[in-house]
Design a protein that fits this description.
The protein is mainly beta. It has two domains: 37 residues, no CATH class; 96 residues, Sandwich (Immunoglobulin-like), CATH 2.60.40.790. The strands form three sheets. A four-stranded antiparallel beta sheet has the order 3-4-9-8, with no helix packed on it. Strands 5-6-7 form a three-stranded antiparallel beta sheet, with no helix packed on it. Strands 1-2 form a two-stranded antiparallel sheet. It is elongated. The N and C termini lie far apart (87 Å).
């Protein structure tokens, strides 16, 4: 007697993308295999009056783990982090290793001043302010319509 139809794909969590992102693996229920997935941090870019502001979510990273560079009129933000953890007990040893990296590249517009760039990191958010070149700042003048 069957009460309900059972399918192996029903075992996959409802919030699978959250679980997979957390563990860095893509789980295929049908073949019971794992595939490494890469995660790219979320970025917000604001076009302010005197500067561009780039905000990047980099939770669990420290300042020493992140590199911000200007190369050939591009903004390059990258990180590479390795870790290992070892636990020993009477009859066993457990070692875990991990590696994570990312790179984001943004073409800078012609109106930036590459000599006036500031980067700060606070609560897992990397904020980069890129000043606009003063000769390119927009001069507005309201024209009266007659």
């Amino acid at each position: 007697m069957k009460l309900f139809k059972w399918n192996a794909t029903d075992l996959k969590p409802k919030f699978s993308n959250i679980v997979e992102k957390f563990f860095g693996k893509n789980i295929n229920v049908e073949t019971a295999t794992e595939q490494e997935v890469s995660t790219v941090p979320s970025v917000n870019i604001a076009n302010e009056e005197k500067a561009f502001e780039v905000s990047i979510a980099v939770p669990s990273l420290e300042k020493k783990d992140v590199t911000v560079e200007i190369k050939n009129n591009t903004l390059v933000i990258s990180s590479e982090k390795q870790y290992s953890n070892e636990e020993k007990d009477k009859n066993w040893v457990r070692k875990e290793y991990g590696y994570a990296s990312f790179q984001r590249i943004f073409q800078l517009p012609n109106n930036v001043d590459e000599n006036k760039i500031q980067a700060t990191m606070n609560n897992g958010i990397l904020t980069i302010k890129i000043a606009k070149d003063e000769k390119f700042l927009e001069n507005k003048k309201l024209i009266e319509i007659k």
